[in-house]
Amino acid sequence: MKTDKKSIYIIGDIPAIFHDDTIEKFKNAELDMMSKGFRVYNPLSEINPEARGLNNELKIKNIQNLFKSDAIYLLPCADINQNNLELKISILLDLLVIHCLDISKKKSKRKINNSIDVKFTK
């Protein structure tokens, strides 16, 4: 039985060595999109917290997940330039781009725009 749930891939800045706040930003975005009914591909969901980096196997899996996605969720920290492979792939796949606000806990006192109403027309 096929589901009509749309999938979304989170894109944001992932430094070579990152800290808990990086993981938190992606997790908050994941929870936000899940609450809106999406199947979410979080590139940091399977990260080993002790490793503090992405290995090649995980990078490949993340790109595969991007190919399965209907849209991308672009975090404010995303490096938007011509060298961003995820963005290049997203453009080639003609994926819907959802640009979000900073939803980290540090900014949780600010009202988040929960009125994102995404319609897919394919």
Layout of strands and helices, then pairs:
Blueprint: E1 7-11, H1 20-35, E2 39-41, H2 56-67, E3 71-74, H3 85-92, E4 96-99
Parallel strand pairs: 1-2, 1-3, 3-4
Notes on the protein architecture:
The structure is a single chain. The longest helix is centred in the N-terminal third of the chain and has 16 residues. Strands 2-1-3-4 form a 4-stranded parallel beta sheet, sandwiched between helices. It is built from 3 helices and 4 strands, in the order βαβαβαβ. Helices cover 30% and strands 13% of the residues. It has one domain. It has 122 residues and is an alpha/beta fold. This is DUF4406 domain-containing protein. It comes from Flavobacterium chungnamense.
Fraction of residues in helix: 25-40%
The arrangement of helices and strands along the chain is EHEHEHE
List low-pLDDT spans: 102-122
How can the largest sheet be summarized?
A: 4 strands, parallel
From the spread of the alpha carbons, the general shape counts as globular
Number of H/I helices: 3
- Number of beta-strand segments: 4
Strand order of the largest sheet: 2-1-3-4
Roughly what is the average pLDDT, rounded to an integer? 78
Distance between the amino and carboxyl termini: 20 Å
- Please give the radius of gyration in angstroms: 14 Å
- Which percent band covers the strand fraction? 5-15%
Structural class: alpha/beta
Which labels suit this protein?
122 residues; alpha/beta; four-stranded parallel β-sheet; 3 helices; 13% strand; DUF4406 domain-containing protein
